[in-house]
Write the structure tokens for this entry.
Amino acid sequence: MFQLVTAVLMVGAQPAIASGIGLDNLPEVFAATCLDGTARVPAGSLTKVGFGNLPSRIRDDLGHPTSAQVWRLNTTGRAYLYVLDYAPGQGMNPKICGLASDEMSIKAAADLLDLRLAGSIVPARRKTTQWLRPEDGYLAIATTAGDFHVVQVNWLTDRDRAEVLKELRPVSH
């Protein structure tokens, strides 16, 4: 799925985000890229940069991926979209896709995830909110990291997914 996303992001054909990338639609860019794999952004709306160009607070939290695709979004403030792959290992997420912005509304991003993943918006929220979707194979997160608001999907390994599904199965009578 992410190879397709990369091609679409690079080409910028048939933009789904027709008005360009603004602060108001950063959560939609994240959802289209990381949840749907269908992001299409206008040409010139992002610039490919290396993993080392992520702010240190974000980069340090993401560890050492084996491969990284990172784009700086041409919007107000600093905003980055990233797709990272990691070496297989116990308890390791093999792929992470996220968006970090110093000006994106974390409330708007979390509300979008609430609607998409839980079907309604939770009125009270903590600094970090997580949505575990083992049936879909991922954990979604909305949090802060230094000056940045981050929304991210951590894909589960097949083994981790099976273990979580086993733990969450209903108790039978």
Summary: The radius of gyration is 16 Å. The longest strand covers residues 138-145.
